[in-house]
Amino acid sequence: MDTPALFAGGRLCLDFINTACMRRGVEIEFISDGEELMRWLRMAEEVTGTQLCDQREYREGMLSQAIELRGALHDLVHSAIEQRPPSAESLQTVNGILRAAPAYSQIGYERQGFQESHGNSRPEDQWRMAIAADAVDLLCHSDLSLLRQCECPSCVRVFYDTTKNHKRRWCVEKCGSAPKAAAYYRRKVAKAAEAHSKIVEPAAGDALNAGDLRLQ
Ligand SMILES: [Zn+2]
């Protein structure tokens, strides 16, 4: 798997939505079975530093829960990008997960001092609770104008633009270079066509041709 592309969303919940994407017009599914889902969760844990897998084993039902959550988050995030209200069903799905597994704060003490950690009443649901909680933070407490879909026509990934000038247009560099290459090709063809028309254009001093044209 291409890790930078897989975690190009810049937010856990967006990376999770991006596990279903497109490449050159073909749909790609990164969590098509339990093993792939667990692999993605472990990778996400490493990349984002969020604890996701309390238990390392795949449990029955996790995959359908993941697909349901992803579908709901996809609707919520796209409603924000498209500035339309989300479906009540999507809100219900995410809120149901948040309600079923409330997280609580814990105080720890280490050499550096007090440390806050988060516990969960249903450790087996830690993974989807963390993804849903990240969506709450993104949708309710972040600048939604920085939430975007990749501008590459054959890409559907979403990302949160944290660049300094907020002008990020593509999820990964590769997506930006495809339209650039197409534009370069178009310019090259236009230039070649222009050069060709100059060669076949009648010379300025060609009186006979000019006269012929006036007589018509
Ligand atoms: Zn892209």
UniProtKB/TrEMBL annotation:
Residues 147-188 form the Zinc finger CGNR domain. InterPro entries: ABATE (IPR010852), ABATE_dom_sf (IPR023286), Znf_CGNR (IPR021005). It holds the Pfam family zf-CGNR. It comes from the Bacteria. Coiled coil: none annotated. SUPFAM superfamilies: Jann2411-like. This is Zinc finger CGNR domain-containing protein. It comes from Capsulimonas corticalis. The lineage of its organism: Bacteria, Bacillati, Armatimonadota, Armatimonadia, Capsulimonadales.
